[in-house]
Design goal:
Layout: H1 4-26, E1 39-46, H2 53-56, E2 58-64, H3 66-73, E3 84-95, E4 98-112, E5 123-129, E6 134-136, H4 140-147
Antiparallel strand pairs: 1-2, 2-3, 3-4, 4-5, 5-6
Bound molecules: heme C.
Length: 162
């Protein structure tokens, strides 16, 4: 007995699966709305001559959402699903014997999601340009390659300053 509709259903079904699966892998990290009200983890100024200067020279503050704070305080340090950490990069401006915050250079983000970002250590990586919030095209593997140096703290370098 021929059932041509069965083949059609299977075809539609597998197409749906492919779209669904590829949809998961291409889905990126969203702009972290409201991160300025999250917990401040630490700050740092990266100057010329520092290994991170080319990448993130300037003044940065790191912020953690409440799930990321659970991770920073866990021992051993493992971050739960939905943890988001923001690296807010500003231009340092030297003025009147002080260093003050200049314009925002980038909003750099890590989001923990074992389903979407399994290929890069369960973290998604993203960069948004200055205040425009425009996503910058990056190679998440290059982020992951360096962050592997912090594999024993779940790929997160910074520690929470109490
Ligand atoms: C050459 C190494 C290196 C590369 C490449 C790198 N990072 Fe980092 N990243 C660091 C270090 C070191 C810190 C810790 C800075 C601090 O303690 O203030 C950091 C911190 C961060 C943080 C705060 C959480 C943490 O791990 O402390 C985020 C978010 C972040 N990086 C995102 C990215 C993204 C997105 C990329 C790729 C576009 C990237 N990083 C590429 C070295 C790197």
């Amino acid at each position: 007995m021929k059932k041509p509709w069965l083949g059609l259903l299977l075809l539609i079904g597998s197409f749906g699966l492919v779209v669904g699966v590829s949809g998961q892998t291409v889905e990126g990290v969203a702009f972290p709305e409201g991160y300025r009200t999250w917990t401040h983890v630490k700050s740092m100024i990266v100057e010329k001559g520092h290994p991170l200067f080319e990448l993130v020279g300037g003044l940065h503050h790191i912020y953690a959402n409440s799930k990321a704070m659970q991770g920073y305080q866990a021992n051993p340090r493992v971050f739960p699903e939905g943890a988001v950490i923001v690296f807010d990069l500003l231009e340092p401006v030297k003025a009147e014997n002080a260093v003050v915050e200049g314009k925002r250079k980038a909003v750099i983000v890590m989001e923990k999601d074992t389903r979407r970002f399994a290929a890069t250590g369960n973290w998604g990586y993203a960069v948004f340009e200055g205040d425009s919030r425009r996503p910058v095209e990056i190679n998440a593997n290059s982020c992951y390659e360096c962050h592997r140096g912090a594999a024993n703290t779940d790929f997160v370098f910074s520690s929470f300053r109490p």
